[in-house]
Design a protein that fits this description.
With 383 residues, this protein is α/β, with parallel strands linked by helices. Helix content is 38%, strand content 23%. Strands 2, 3, 4, 5, 10, 14, 15 and 16 form an eight-stranded mixed β-sheet that branches. It binds S-adenosylmethionine. The site of S-adenosylmethionine has 21 residues, from helix 3. S-adenosylmethionine (SAM) binds next to helix 3.
Amino acid sequence: MSSLPIPNAEAQAHSQQLAALIQTKISQNAGWISFADFMHMALYTPGLGYYSGGAKKFGVGGDFVTAPEISPLFAQTLANQVEQVLAETQGNILELGAGTGKLAADLLMALHALNRLPAQYCILEVSAHLRQIQLETMQNILPPSLVQRVVWLDALPQDFVGMILGNEVLDAIPVHLLHNTAQGLCERGVAFNGDFVWQDKPLPVGDLFDLAANLALPNDYLTEVCPAASGLIASLAHMLKHGVIVMLDYGFSAREYYHLQRNLGTLMCHYQHYAHTEPLIYVGLQDITAHVDFTSIAHAGVGNGLELKGFCTQAQFLMNCGILNLMSQVSPNDMAQYAPLAAAAQKLLSPAEMGDLFKVIALSKEFEAPLLGFASGDKSHTL
Ligand SMILES: C[S@@+](CC[C@H](N)C(=O)[O-])C[C@H]1O[C@@H](n2cnc3c(N)ncnc32)[C@H](O)[C@@H]1O
């Protein structure tokens, strides 16, 4: 990792503080913690974790760029799908993990233009730091009458009617690492010997063992599973009374995810626009993420009373939601407006960028009509 930028002294001190907490946790736990515990502490320890600390994460000068940060075109296109759900349910919006709040602000502007504003735009955000950034984004972009509609929740509501959204949330949920070895199924966790190091432990009989056994992993195969993401979907299924959940993220069906050739899993880190595969360094300074197994998300939804409404690539979803139509409202002769729009569309749609790797899944309850975003190219049958 010699090519990674070196953190400054302040960032290194911050990282050491968090590393000390993780070391304590490891020694209190007989010298070993699961990678899910490590990832949880690295990302979400209050004040110190990557998402809970103060450094800039999104966009230029941050570590990575997400679709809402690329252009308002993303939210404007998604607004057409949200509009359909709000028209049918007369409900509200709940966004999970709202990042800088850019998607929320641009969606509210777009829904205002479509005359389909929800009474409330609820945000559930685990990071207190990001909540503050979200409020600032709203205040900078939106008129006060729209800011007033935004409500930050501390926990999922008991009942919800309307549209639930999450962009790049599932990939930020801590994963367990499974290692199928000649000696049997192991969980790969983290120990400390002066540095954080990987350590495998035989997987005891229990839920994680059953999950791993079901995957029938090939020998000498390292991968990850995310029971917490399935748990989140199960919780959403229980509180959703009438409406639709749409999750957008990078990932695959289980068949592709647990493919023989993907024998090192999908764990990735992002630090100042460098992508690499060493989550045990730069603790609290870098993003840690795993691709999403959309089959497990679909199973969690359907197993808890939801209907699988659609699954397709981000490119297909945005095309179905009218991205080209939105672009056609700007004249290509107006280069100042058209050129950034075309560049954004290229990033969002191109198979070489976000178009194919990113997928969209929709799960619903008591919602009859087919969803606009999956009118063409629905691949639900592949899950
Ligand atoms: C990669 S960022 C994406 C942010 C934003 N949605 C975007 O697209 O720019 C992941 C976000 O998910 C949040 N998050 C992670 N787990 C969550 C959970 N269980 N509930 C709600 N938010 C969560 C993080 O705090 C962070 O805001």
